[in-house]
Fold these 2 entries.
Entry 1:
Amino acid sequence: MQHIDLDDLFAADAIRDPHTFFGRLRESDPVHWNARHQVWIVTRHADVISIVRDHDAFSSAVIRSDARPPYPPLDVTGLTLLDEVRCFRGAQLVEQDPPRHHAMRRLLHHYFTPPAIEALRPFVRAAVTELLDELGTGRPLDVMTALAAPLPVTVIAHLMGVPEAHRPQLREFADKLLHINRGEPDRFTPLVDGIRSILEYVAPLAESRLESPGQDFISVLTEGERTGVMSRYDVLVNCALLLFAGHETTMNLIGNGILALIRHPEEWEKLRANPEQMTRGATEECLRFDPPVKSTQRIAAADVTLGERTIRKGDRIRWIMTAANRDPSAFPEPDRFRIDRRPNPHVSFGGGIHFCLGAALARVEGQELFRALAERVSTIELETREPEYQPSIQFRSLRELRVTLQ
Amino acid sequence: MSGEVPRRVGASVDHDVCVGHGGCRRVAPTAFRRTALGQSEFVEAHEEPDAGILEAAANCPVAAITVRVEESGAPRNQ
């Protein structure tokens, strides 16, 4: 048997097929100490659930608390930029523990509940219709640039109150910020360029909302500055976070979801037979089967036992949604893509206090897009022989997905 | 305070849906408690005003809480 290095998280196999790569770990060593990167890799569904629901033991303040150097190693320039990256990431909502986390999330939370987001469905539906009308049928297109990016960018730009003309710029920032979870030693150079550019971009927007607040999330965040929950820097960082997290992940839901539907024609036919009814289940199964985010991090705040392992205070942990979502002890026939799977307790949005703020929004975007496709398109022909993915440890992002809609 | 408020709403939490966000336990700490698996469950004998339970349900990030209105509308457990 070919030797496989299960500690090389950036190996071509791990990027191409994380299901098999992390599935091996789940079956052989579900709470695995990765000696190369000095990080615990957690792959079982039940263990992931314990981690995300125990914020006392598993802290989210990874960047500020981590005494170990970033993995994989950085080049010399990267090391000089480390403090700037720590400062940026350390101010993000996702890196906070209670009570600060609750104070920050409280500003935003009620805008993102399922009923609040439901009110946005007509806007999303209209945006989907407009996009698909423009695309037409019968000619090859790249799903990622023609559908997967424009829909969530349109929606988040609308919510943030960012002018329409600025949308292409948002993608440029995102392409640089995406380097945060890459493996190249020089990854911090484009990353810090992206951090500086996006902070510079949002600064005047925040300034104008402080003077005259509007009905948008930049205004909501600046309210946090007015009430003393956040500093100006925190406001800018979290505007950047919403702009970026608000579309990058949904982009992957759309790309990976369409690919799964193409590869399972019987499920695509099920969706086409009843788009209105089936689109919710289809969206959940797309989220489970090939999640937009493959993994995320915590750091142990105390010594804690997980499975048969003892994790020491200060140890960093990466938990793998991709593996947990295919755990046979949580999902019957986990490798089968079934849009009528129920229940579907996938962990693609995490869980616990940090449960994805934008989950309901991502769901509505997925549901509206998959439904409209099933109503308007009879077949989606795959024009990409072997799809390629960005070499990220965190995001499952197709580089491109060439198809023809018929 | 809460003892004087008539309680007319009850609730249940769908454990196929609950993700253990715990917002309900912060909003209505006596009406919801943490299960061994880190999800929330409704406590029948609680001291929350109706408004707290309604707010907890409205703010659930996955809409896992179903609120029921007691038929009589009369105060309970007093």
Note: The CA atoms of residues 141 and 402 of chain A lie 5 Å apart.
Entry 2:
Amino acid sequence: MEYADLTRLCFRCGYCKFSADYGEINCPSYLKFGFDTYAPGGRMWLIKAWLTHQIDISANYMKILYTCATCGNCKEQCVMDLKTNLLDVFEAAKSELVEEGAVPPAVRDYFKAISINGNPYKEPQSERGKWAEGIGIEVFDGHEYLFYVGDVGSYDERGKKMARSVASVFVDAGLSVGMLGEEELSDGNDVKALGEKWLFQYLAEENIKLFNARGVKKIITLDPHAYNAFRVEYPKFGGNFEVQHYAQLFLTLIRNKTIHPETSDLKVTYHDPCYLGRHGGVYDAPREVLKYVPGLHFSEMRRNGKNALCCGGGGGNFFTDMMGGGEESPARIRVREALETGCQGLVVACPLCAKMLDDAVKAEGVETRIRIQDLAETLKGACREMTNSRTAGDDVLDMRSLTGYCCDLWKIPSILRDRIIGPDDIREDAEKRPTRRSAL
Amino acid sequence: MEIVVLVKQVPDTEAMIQIAEDGVSLKTEKITWIMNPYDEFAVEEAVRIRASLGGRVTVLALGPESTVTAIRTALAMGADKGIHIHDPAAEGSDSLSTGKILAAALKDMPYDLIIAGQRAMDDDGYQVGAAVAEYLDIPQISMVIKQEIVGGKIICHRTEDGALVTVESELPVLFTTQRGLNEPRYVTFPGIIKAKKKPVEVKTLEDLGIDPQTVGPAGQKVTIVALHSPPKRIGVRMIVRETEQENAAELVRILSEEVKVLLA
């Protein structure tokens, strides 16, 4: 196995699973499962045990390897030189499982869907460009930028919404930008993270061929995972493109006064996507963008930047759900952490984070207190309905000013949207729904 | 233990199925072809049995040129050799003819155990496994979720109307697979390429001693008269009246008058 020698260097000091101040656990899978085998050090020892024939491949061994969200917190906290290749060790171990054919069914089905259908949703390629209907973005044909949306932006409802808001910012700004639509193919970042390096190579080569054939030079990605694949991995296969995440381009466009953020008096915080932050080193651009929104109140979460807690969707977990839900799932912990800041909006810059945290908000039953919004939605003042002054501690809201917004959240049919919901009804409803405390 | 697995290549289960111009066949241009998912359980089980009892796993498939991809996938999963019955005269065979052709190939082969998918995911016929067993005059156990071979006997578990049925038989036997039997292994690209070194024997109807007039379109006992797409799902219809009583009354009216599921 590649990097096998590194497993001997880890003496399981355990720092890898902590936050920068060692004050709390920052490894998503260790947070969820609480056993040392689910921490990076534990995985290192387990892989070593497998390499030295002390243990065999089992369902549990597979689960432990595949619940790693590849968030990279361990690389920040590890005190040994091996930290540079820490995630490479896990990836190599997963590759060994792939080669043996011994991967969890959810991982197998993810690979098969991408091999057969070109995307994990098993949807026809002809549906790929549907997110863009009515936005006015053209199919790429010699444009300055290619807007690559990826699987989640193309097929997931939350992802599509995000792709639409980002694309409309570009279109409104008159940027020369095109999309690939039904020709777009999975970027393969998570395929690689799950250890299927052969399928990843195929996807990378196909994408590079396609980008070159279409004359693509500059790529803007919706998804930080694609940003990582194009920027770090594709050059290894001869694909050299100028790659930016949309947050970076937003900043440029704001600075040169091409786009003008709308005023907002929301209180927001920002969640760093692992593949933009720790993997991509882009911490400032999204924060700078938020600074340009007039009136916006920004505050940081306890864990931010290099020290941010992952939503749990990285490393393919978004698709395979090996991590699973529950109260101690990283996404729900993250939502509770965001609520501590007193924010009304949790700003994200990744479609996977958006969906993971959206679901977590619902699971926590805090839809009326916090909303997951991406950077583009924040610029366009999508949360204007929520601008009444509230703090996170408020249990009862004045719903009359929020009717439109709440209808969306509580899935009240739009036909009832005009009906005014009284505060008493809402309070009663909120009490009925299980909260974290009442569940305990 | 000589194990033979029957494999069919079918359209990807998520493929957009469209009826061809002739009205009795399907458009195949944009379809991705895969190994029938129930056959994957069969290959996986065969490979696992070989791992514990030793022996050889042979994959037997009938179909056009492209079928070899399904055979290669089975070989990459661990099967030892493949037999591809490829003859234009056999195309368009119904389930019974398919059973007859496969059985003819099996007559010349050693086998202790034959494993087949319970049905192919394309036409959902459920016939071929049973037909092969009948032609070979051996017992068949269908929709197996667990099996155990002890001393020349096989014990199979199958579910039936919420009950678990245990069936025992002497070998040789044919059994068909049900979901839950196992989790088929994942096969990588290099795995499939490596499997190219394994032998795939191609046979024609003549090799099997079958008169082309008795199979294919000429030998059809079942004829497809027409294909129809299922009716499109209609969207949700909201009933919005002033009061709950009016809502309920309208719902009852729709269910009895329009949908006709309630009788007055």
Note: Chain A has 20 helices and nine strands.
